Amino acid sequence: MTAYLIKSVSVVGAAPTDLLIRDGVVAETGAGLAAPDATVLDGTGLVALPGLVDLHTHLREPGREDAETVESGSRAAALGGYTAVCAMANTSPVADTAGVVEQVWRLGREAGLVDVQPIGAVTVGLAGGQLAELGAMADSAARVRIFSDDGHCVADPKLMRRALEYVKAFDGVIAQHAEEPRLTEGAQMHEGEVSTRLGLTGWPAVAEEAIIARDVLLAEHVGSRLHVCHVSTAGSVEVLRHAKARGVKVTAEVTPHHLLLTDAKAETYDPVYKVNPPLRTATDVAALRAALAEGVIDIIATDHAPHAVEDKECEWAYARPGMLGLETALSIALDVLGPQWDLIAERMSRAPARIAGLDGHGADPAPGVPANLTLVDPAARRTIEPAELASRSRNTPYARMTLPGRIVATFLRGEPTVLDGKATK
Known about the structure:
The protein is of the alpha/beta class. It has 2 domains: 4-47 and 367-423, Urease, subunit C, domain 1 (Roll); 50-356, TIM Barrel, CATH 3.20.20.140. Helices cover 29% and strands 22% of the residues. It has 12 helices and 19 strands. It has helices at 70-79, 98-111, 134-139, 157-168, 193-198, 205-222, 234-245, 256-260, 282-294, 309-312, 329-337, 341-356, and strands spanning 4-11, 16-22, 25-30, 39-42, 47-50, 52-57, 82-87, 115-118, 146-147, 173-176, 189-190, 202-203, 225-228, 250-254, 299-300, 373-383, 402-412, 415-419, 422-423. Strand 18 (415-419) and strand 19 (422-423) form a beta hairpin. The radius of gyration is 21 Å and the shape is globular.
């Protein structure tokens, strides 16, 4: 294993220091380090962060390898500064058995670019009818700890309660896609002024807020852990704030696109802006940003959702919802939050690693810590060209936008997966 000496790098925004990486860990830090056997990297002007962790990634394999594979999604993640991603269960077949989650886990290990941690389905086939094999998935080689029917809400309150009770036994988490389906039938975008003007069926904010309110009460009653996926409304923020003040075991995520884009993008009828939950209003965006800074929202999660060309380049009504996110998430965080490195490290690495229980991830670079880290050039700006993305899909809403920050290097247990901004394999 090659040793690396990173000279004059700022660790999470602190004064420049040297980092020596050897045998998969950060062996030493300090000024003026020397290691004759190490490959030297110039870290001047760069910031070292703990490797980013994404709690919400769609890798599509098995079943939709035309849109993404575990390998291509892992490469996109590494180029985005990630060292671990949690792969959602809405594959084909659905990841609702030990066999499927182990397949995804093994594909991640074979790719070797990031740690791929499968998320198991809550219900069989994501159909909402009966619980999936939660215990078998938890006991599998993949050691599943997060379960979600993302893309579908666990709408039955009795079933949701049973799921929360079941995973409590092994400190698992139910990650809920908060959408009351009876309030969103035929919905095409956020319900509001823009949807009325465009004549598109609206997705009301209350459809999200009602499920979150119900589920925090269930989680409080059971004493189990709840995670709320892709929070998108100001009302949801208030429900979460109240629940956390009462000590409910609830965490929440926001996506980069919900921190930056609004429902006004739908006026273009460009299906790249169609997502679930939909883009909301400027008022919602402001509330989400404030909640993220405050800690009411715990993490940024990409909801990386690659789609084949035919599923996005079509009429708005027929387009599949979702956007790419892995290769641009840190740039959006920098654009929204500025260079608040400790906050970025907390929201994009430490907190998601804690929620997912990913040992070895989410720790700031320090002696003895596994060398899962990323080097960022905050002064760089880059223009997003879809054809240059590592993902198999091209549905990025940031095409030809110039964004701050560039990932210079990513290390997974001391091995570089990215060097000089390029994947090493």
